[in-house]
Amino acid sequence: MFEANNRAYLTFYMKQFSKLHRQIFAITTTLALITIVIISISIASLLYTQGIDNAESVLRNKNRSVTTLIDGYVAPLRKAVEYTGSSASGVDHSRFREQETKEKFLSLFEVLQNTIPNIHYIFSGYEDGSLLINNYTAPAGFNSTVRPWYLAAIKSNPLISEGVPYQDINSKKWLVSFGKTLLDADNKIVGVISIDAGMDSIVKALAIRDEKYPTIYNFVMDTEGKILIHPDETLPDTLHQQIFSHLPEKVNASGSLAYNDGDQKKLAHFDRIDELGWIVVTEVNLADIRQPIVKTITSTLLMIVIGSLFTTWLMSHILSRHLILPLKRLQQRVQEITEGKDELGKYVFPNNEIGKISEAIEKLTEKALIQKNIELKDKNTLLSTISHTDQLTSIANRRKMMEVLHTEVSSYEQNQHPFSVLMFDVDHFKHVNDTFGHEVGDQVLIRLAQTIKATIHKTDTLGRWGGEEFVIVCPNTDKTMALNIAEKVFSAIHLHNFPLQINITISLGLSEFTNNHSLESILVEIDQKMYRAKQLGRNQIQT
Ligand SMILES: Nc1nc2c(ncn2[C@@H]2O[C@H](COP(=O)(O)OP(=O)(O)OP(=O)(O)O)[C@@H](O)[C@H]2O)c(=O)[nH]1
């Protein structure tokens, strides 16, 4: 019963272990997957935003560097225009027709041209259509007042005209022109001073590419959306409506914007330089930015997935080591105990809750085992008693008597302790059975055994040899003492009231064990004596 219960428990626990293992694995994997998904989404969106921010910052920096370069480039030119047009130059422009004034102005042109190397041409035109310039003679019929640079300065009066880029017909170089009106003492326009400067360095700066984002480029447009300078030489003079419609009109505004240029999405940064009438734009294809972002996101996510899987494996391993393994070892331990392999060594419990549970289970199991051992001992004692007891009379049976006899014989052989053996048989017992019935016969035998047991010493052993035959083994008893015991037995039987007043007598033989005896020979001898007592008329003792 105990074994069967334990086996059932063990099977149940084994199933629990594998289920627990599966549950732990499922929980850690699910948690890891949820964590991976959450972290991946967060990191991907973070990296994407960061990537776009980075690209915007690259665009902004590039745009700023171009704008700064333009500012730095244009400032001395505008200052030169301002200076030549003002009274600070020491030239009285109302007297432009006078040779002295012309020479003074031409020498100023020369000084400025030598001081500012970017100046390509510096010249002035006057209301009479004349042109004042070093080393050049205007063709016949030339009229300054109809030239675009003259008209632009008149239009911007009293300010410096916006920078007008144009390609020189002769050198094919890009030039930018700044002009300002020349005034007399009454602030009346008498002419225009104009400086044309080469734009090579600006064009070069606009054309500088970026290694990370190869599609980045810069271009310049005017405040009406007309492209002025562009790396694609076919585009200047054309309108760029797609981006222009997104630009704010605020003076000197700058910022980022995204727009669709045909089927291409573009990200741009712009900076309005309103004193020049220019808008500097730096833009890039959005696909060009996304590519490195996607690359970064992919490699980062790959690292996260590998890291998370490794962590999951490590967690599973640690949990298995600290949770499943102790439970499995406990299961093994319980099995060992129930199978009685207690000598296999003490199990070292882990120092945690599982350890405490394990200890409790082990104690419980050990307690059950002790209980089982007590039950077994009781059963063994009972079995031993049953196997040594006569069922009817509850005195020793023949097997027990043989054991007692063997013990006495060996004790005699070792220490010469004397002992005697008495054997008797109920007289005419068949008659008792036949007359009063078998059950009465049984009662007689029981009462006979009780009577004799009460008569003899506790150290003597009474046993049923078989049927109505009995044996008494008396340790430390010589023949004389044995005869005395036999007589006491006879007397007790004689005095006892058996059922139905039946008169019971016995025939008895006795011997003291001597050196000449063996166990077999003394038994044969006593049996013969008992037979002789029967022969001689029963109800007597033969010694
Ligand atoms: N009631 C009962 N009778 C038993 C038991 N064991 C043996 N007997 C009977 O005891 C009787 C023994 O008979 P016998 O061997 O002929 O001996 P007896 O009648 O006692 O005659 P003698 O021994 O010659 O005096 C038999 O009838 C057995 O059946 C028992 O346990 N109970």
Automatic annotation (TrEMBL):
TM segment ranges: 24-48, 300-319
E.C. designation(s): 2.7.7.65
Top enzyme category: transferase
Subcellular localization(s) per the UniProt record: Cell membrane
Primary location recorded for the protein, binned into one broad class: membrane
Domain of life: Bacteria
InterPro entries attached to this UniProt entry: dCache_1, Diguanylate_Cyclase, GGDEF_dom, Nucleotide_cyclase, Rev_trsase/Diguanyl_cyclase, Sensor-like_sf
CDD domains: GGDEF (cd01949), PDC1_HK_sensor (cd18773), PDC2_MCP_like (cd12912)
Domain annotation GGDEF: ranges: 417-543
Protein name as annotated: diguanylate cyclase
High-level lineage: Bacteria, Pseudomonadati, Pseudomonadota, Gammaproteobacteria, Oceanospirillales
